[in-house]
Amino acid sequence: MNQKQELIKLINASNIEESDKKEWEILIGAAPEEYAGGLLELFMKFPDEIGWFTDIYKRKKQAFSMMESDKKKASEVLRIIFQEEKERLDELSKGADLN
Questions:
Q1: Mean pLDDT for the chain?
Q2: What does the alpha-carbon distance between residue 99 and residue 81 come to, in Å, rounded to a whole number?
Q3: Is the pLDDT of residue 99 over 60?
Q4: Fewer CB within 10 Å: C terminus or N terminus of the chain?
C-alpha cells in the first residue's frame, strides 16, 4: 500500500464526518506524494488530532476563498490560522519527535 492509500485508510478509520473524509480523499489524491507522506507521519503519531487538522483545513479553505473579495482580511485570517497551527504543532512536538 502506498502512502496515499495508507493515509486515506487512516483518515477513514477516524471519527470525522463522512463528507470530510471524502474531502481529504480528493485532496490527498491531488497532492504530491511527499505531502501525503508528511500527513501520514503526523496522523500516525497523533490520530486523535485528525479532527483538529480537518477543522484547520476547512478554515484555510474559507480564508482562501475570501481572497477575491477582501484580500487584506483573508490574509489576516490566514496569518491567524497559520499561527494557531504552528502553536499546535509545537505543542504536539514537545511530547513526540515529529521527524
A1: 92
A2: 23
A3: no
A4: C
DSSP secondary-structure letter at 67?
T
Q: How many CB atoms lie within 10 A of CB 27?
A: 16
CA atoms within 13 A on the CB side of 42: 19
Distance CA 19, CA 23 (A): 6
For residue 23, give Cα distances in angstroms to 56, 68, 91, 94: 13, 23, 26, 30
pLDDT exceeds cutoff 90 at 97: no
What number is the average pLDDT over the span 7-26?
96
Short-list 20, 53, 48, 19, CA closest to 35: 53
Q: Is the pLDDT of residue 93 over 70?
A: yes
